[in-house]
Amino acid sequence: MKKMTCRQLGGACDIEFQANTFDEMAEISKRHGMEMFQSGDPAHSEVINKIMELMMDPGKMEQWMTEKKQLFEALPDEN
Ligand SMILES: [Zn+2]
């Protein structure tokens, strides 16, 4: 089990997510981002907009995902 904060994943707050795999982590953080976006949080809305922009450029999106994945892989496992 690894922990990452919203901010470490490119987000806007210090909420901690826990997951066993990077895919799981990405899914949890995405859900959180969308929830915050829907509740009208301006900081997270900005993050979502930035990610939407990244998604227009598959190369950049992939690079961004790779960076976050490397960060995840580098973290120590916690139980
Ligand atoms: Zn957040």
Describe the model.
The chain has 79 residues and is mainly α. The protein has one domain. 61% of the residues lie in helices and 10% in strands. The protein contains three helices and two strands. The chain has helices at 22-38, 42-55, 58-74, and strands at 2-5, 16-19. Helix 1 (22-38) packs across helix 2 (42-55). The longest helix has 17 residues, at 22-38. It is globular. The model has no long low-confidence stretch (mean pLDDT 95).
In short:
The chain has 79 residues and is mainly α. The protein is built from three helices and two strands.
Major beta sheet, strand line-up: 1-2
Report the bound ligands by name, code or SMILES: zinc ion
Which geometry do the CA atoms define? globular
What Rg is obtained from the alpha carbons, in whole angstroms? Answer: 12 Å
Domain tally: 1
How many β-strand stretches?
2
Q: What helical percentage do the residues reach? A: 55-70%
Note poorly predicted spans. none
Q: What proportion of the residues form beta strands (DSSP E)?
A: 5-15%
Query: Ends: how far apart?
Result: 6 Å
Number of helices: 3
Give the H and E element order: EEHHH
The residue-averaged pLDDT reads 95
**What is the makeup of the main sheet?**
2 strands, antiparallel
Helix/strand/pairing category: mainly alpha
Primary descriptors:
single chain, 79 residues, mainly alpha, two-stranded antiparallel sheet, binds zinc ion
